[in-house]
């Protein structure tokens, strides 16, 4: 008499366990990819900020502006190539978070350049605020909070950055 071994597949419990493990692996990959993408956006934003401030300062050397309040020079800086290519959408400045970028001269007599990022997510806002130690940085405004002493504490940054879109304005000396 020949003995046949019984062939059997997965039962429902085993299939559920396998699917659960696969789901955890995919979920872990998804979270890691989102974290990498967020860090890349923050790095691109900070690199772009430094390039904008440096390029704008170089272009504005010995340049006079008419008297008046804050002057928006974003369009001129885009035309002059002062904003990195990935910060330009047609004739508008855009940051890696999808918000607007503006370049200002606070007033004609001011020796400063203001670079403003809008729609910055909270985690990036906190990181940019606590790490705001950049060459030539005179002050940083986070929403309505003005900082001129650096570094800004984590508690102050956490209180200044909201869960909604944040606006950060860096004032650089020319």
How do the helices and strands line up, and which of them pair or pack?
Layout: H1 12-60, E1 71-72, H2 74-79, E2 88-89, E3 92-94, E4 100-105, E5 112-120, H3 122-130, E6 137-142, E7 145-147, H4 154-160, E8 166-173
Antiparallel strand pairs: 1-4, 2-3, 3-4, 4-5, 5-8, 6-7, 6-8
Helix pairs in contact: 3-4
Descriptive terms for the model:
174 residues, alpha+beta, eight-stranded antiparallel sheet, 4 helices, elongated
Structure description:
The chain is α+β, with helices and mostly antiparallel strands and 174 residues long. 41% of the residues lie in helices and 22% in strands. Strand 2 and strand 3 form a beta hairpin. Helix 3 packs antiparallel against helix 4. 25% of the residues are buried. The mean pLDDT is 87.
């Amino acid at each position: 008499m020949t003995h046949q071994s019984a062939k059997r597949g997965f039962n429902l419990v085993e299939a559920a366990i396998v699917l659960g493990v696969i789901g955890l692996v995919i979920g872990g990959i998804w979270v890691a990819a989102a974290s990498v993408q967020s860090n890349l956006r923050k790095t691109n934003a900070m690199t772009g900020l430094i390039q904008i401030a440096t390029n704008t300062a170089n272009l504005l050397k010995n340049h006079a502006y008419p008297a008046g309040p804050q002057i928006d020079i974003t369009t001129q800086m885009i035309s002059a190539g002062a904003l990195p290519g990935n910060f330009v959408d047609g004739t508008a400045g855009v940051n890696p978070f999808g918000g607007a970028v503006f370049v200002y001269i606070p007033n004609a007599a001011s020796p400063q350049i203001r670079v403003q990022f809008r729609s910055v997510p909270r985690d990036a806002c906190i990181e940019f605020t606590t790490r705001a130690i950049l060459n030539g940085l005179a002050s940083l405004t986070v929403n309505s909070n003005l900082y001129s002493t650096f570094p800004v504490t984590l508690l102050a940054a956490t209180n200044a950055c909201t869960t909604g879109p944040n606006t950060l304005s860096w004032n650089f000396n020319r």
